[in-house]
UniProtKB/TrEMBL annotation:
Protein name (Swiss-Prot/TrEMBL): DNA-directed RNA polymerase
A Pfam family annotated for this UniProt entry: RNA_pol_Rpb1_2
GO biological process, one term: DNA-templated transcription
Gene behind the chain: rpb1
GO cellular component, one term: RNA polymerase II, core complex
Similarity comment: Belongs to the RNA polymerase beta' chain family.
Top-rank taxon: Eukaryota
All residue ranges annotated as the RNA polymerase N-terminal domain in the record: 1-214
Coiled-coil regions listed: none
Protein's organism: Redeckera fulvum
Reactions accelerated catalytically: RNA(n) + a ribonucleoside 5'-triphosphate = RNA(n+1) + diphosphate
Length: 322
């Protein structure tokens, strides 16, 4: 074999041996899109959550919870697989669970517990071409056998759902968890330092919907408005005054979108598009320039140029302001 052949390619020294090592505490399976999970979450199959563990130190604050996990054992989620005594002795709970009396925990021991909702992990799709190919996510344990991913985060991973597989790595210390949550988490990677513009934006169904939603002929009844706002985590429960009062109260799409744009966002130079020639000109004549004042969308149809991955789009402006 020539030196060149040993170095280059997928099976070569760099990609095959240096970047492609075997590691513990990792999982790999097919990915599926899920619009109902947050952009910084990853849906983890229960079978994987029961197999991968995190070593939790027993303290006065968590001893009762960890005792319950130890009693659940390795086959019930949430549970635990191993207990490590302060002497370093390792106890496999396969042989302990079910015994009368069980195992009493002591401060300073470690419990290798299952993955639970809210745990921090690193998620990766190969080839890892830039730093956004490995990002921190929060676990959400779900049924079935695929990783679930929010659609907006597929762009930096260059992922699609035609059979792609991705890797998950579980940190094994609180220091590593802290480092991931302070440096690697998805919300901290929205704007790429490489091009100084967002690498994530709104895509697919949501993108089509937001354009139709912000046209002048879009009106929503109260039950629909309530259903939509139930998805807004920090909504205070109050509705704006409807733009039409009779015969029934109706709100515009622009009013509802204004409720999720943070207060203090002002912009009169957001990127926006023009109407295509095929569209009826009487629906929203001249309503193309997007104008936002104190978090309220005053005019304009929001489209890919506004909420996509464009520089000085809405995603970019909110990221800079907040």
């Amino acid at each position: 074999k020539s030196i060149r052949a040993r170095l280059k390619g997928k099976e070569g020294r760099l990609r095959g041996n240096l970047m492609g090592k075997r590691v513990d505490f990792s999982a790999r399976t097919v990915i599926t899109g899920d619009p109902n999970i947050s952009v910084d979450e990853v849906g983890v199959p229960r079978s994987i959550a029961q197999n991968l563990t995190f070593p939790e130190l027993v303290t006065p604050f968590n001893i009762d919870l960890l005792q319950k996990l130890v009693e659940n054992g390795p086959s019930t989620h949430p549970g635990a697989k191993y207990v490590i005594r302060d002497t370093g002795e390792r106890i496999d709970l396969k042989h302990i669970s079910g015994m009368t009396g069980g195992l009493r925990l002591h401060y300073g021991w470690k419990v290798e517990r299952h993955l639970n909702d809210g745990d921090i992990v690193i998620f990766n799709r190969q080839p890892s071409l830039h730093k956004m190919s490995m990002m921190g996510h929060k676990v959400r344990v779900m049924p079935y056998s695929t990783f679930r991913l929010n659609l907006s985060v597929t762009t930096p991973y260059n992922a699609d759902f035609d059979g792609d597989e991705m890797n998950m790595h579980v940190p094994q210390s609180v220091e590593t968890k802290a480092e991931i949550s302070e440096i690697c988490m998805v919300p901290k990677q929205i704007v790429s330092p490489q091009s100084n513009k967002p690498v994530m934006g709104i895509v697919q169904d949501t993108l089509c919907a937001i354009r139709k939603f912000t046209k002048r002929d879009c009106f929503l009844s109260k039950d629909l408005v309530m259903n939509i706002l139930m998805w807004v985590s920090d909504w205070d429960g109050r509705l704006p005054i409807p733009c039409i009062l009779k015969p029934i109260p109706l709100w515009t799409g622009k009013q509802i979108l204004s409720m999720i744009i943070p207060k203090g966002i002002n912009s009169d130079n957001l990127r926006h598009s023009t109407h295509p020639d095929t569209e009826r000109s009487d629906i929203s004549p001249g309503d193309t320039k997007v104008l936002i004042e104190d978090g309220e969308l005053l005019c304009g149809i929001v489209c890919k140029k506004t909420v996509g991955t464009s520089q000085q789009g809405l995603v970019h402006v909110i990221m800079q302001e907040l």
